[in-house]
Structure formats: structure tokens, C-alpha cells
Amino acid sequence: MATPVILIIAAGPNLGAAIAKKFASNSYKVALAARSLSTGIQANGYLHIKTDLSSPHSVPEIFQHVEKSLGIPNIVVFNGANRLVTPPDDPFSASLETLIASRTVGLDSAYIAAQEALRCFKQLPDSTRSAFIYTGNALNQIAIPGVLPFALPKVAAAMLVEYGANAYGHLGYRFYYADQRESDGRPVAESRDGDAHAEMYFALAQEENQSKWLVTFTKAKGREPFLGVDFEGNTRASYDERFGR
Hints:
By secondary structure, this protein is an alpha/beta fold. Helices cover 36% and strands 17% of the residues. The protein has one domain: NAD(P)-binding Rossmann-like Domain (Rossmann fold, 3-Layer(aba) Sandwich).
């Protein structure tokens, strides 16, 4: 049986490093792709690939490099995002260029990555457990003020993952949108925990069948179902009440 391979796209020092360590400790070959990296095999055996997700057409080159150097990836993690914001009370002040810049990284490059991941999964033996995991947040469920450009790709990416899970999950090619929350359901934002993501992503990688594509989880308890909640605990219903709707 071939050694499994994980590809982590937009791998940083928090989530990317923790996920890489977890999978490497479980006998995975590891490939990390990010703008800050220099391409080559590292002393720890990881493959580093320098890439820029603002150019979606560069994404297939990432996969080609992994296939050539390590083998076909059976787990693909996409962490890419471009956190562009607006004044909380003026979401339509964002220029079209701002929307495009956020969408290009968070959705367009993710779409190409999902296409490439599916292409790879189809080449693997049926017994190989494969999964595409998109690192999301609560913005697919609630319109938190001030982050419209950042939110739109998350909403679309969640739909992308849902389509993938519906179409390919029963074939063994699994798709997940992962969203860490606080214990009360509020977003973790910049407090995302690398180890919590590593544990959850490894658990998802081991699933035999596609489970629910939307994966909300906490550090303490793992997978838990949550709806959209903002940082103050407001929901869509409380937004309606606030604005007299």
C-alpha cells in the first residue's frame, strides 16, 4: 500500500504547521504550499512549494509538483483567504477590485484546488480514503458586519463544498467545510487553534464515508452542530429584531 500524502495549501505557522505535524506523525508524506516558502524538500522530509493564490492558474502546478515529488495526494487542505474588510456600517463601500482580490484567493483558487484534488482522488485505489477540507468560518451562516469582501468567498466556498459532497461523496471522494467555534458557538476568529484543527482534520481524513459536509467544532469537544453566531452571540434572528424586521 502506497504511503498516504497530504497537501496543505496556504500552510502557515499555526494551522498548517500543526496539521502537517499531526499527519506526519501518522506516516503521511507532507507537502506545504505557501507564498512564504521556498520550493524544495526540507530536512524534516516535508515538500515546500512556493505559490501565490492570487493567481488561480498556478494551483495545478502545486499538484503536479506534489505528484512528481511525493506521489498523488489523498488529503488536500485549503487554508487560503484574503481578509479584506469595510467599515461595519458601509459594506457597499468596497470596490469591485477589492471583491475580486478576496474572491480570487478564497474561492477561485479553492475551486481549482477542488478540481485538482478530485482528479487526483480518481487515480487512487478505491480503498484509499480521500478528502478535500476547506478551512472556513461562520461567515457562510451569518453576515457579521465589516467583512463583506472576506465573507463572500466563504459563502461561495461553502456552496462549492456542498456541491462536491453531494456529487462525489458517495463515490468515496469526500468534501468538508471546517469551522472552529468557541464553546458557545461564537467564532474563534484569530484565536483558531492549530492543534484542534489538526485533530479534527485527521479524524475527517479517517472517515470511511462522507458525513455532513459542514463541520463545526470546538477545541474541547470536537464536532458540534452550530448555527450562525457573531462575536456578541447575535444570530440572524436577533439581527432581524435589532433592525425591526
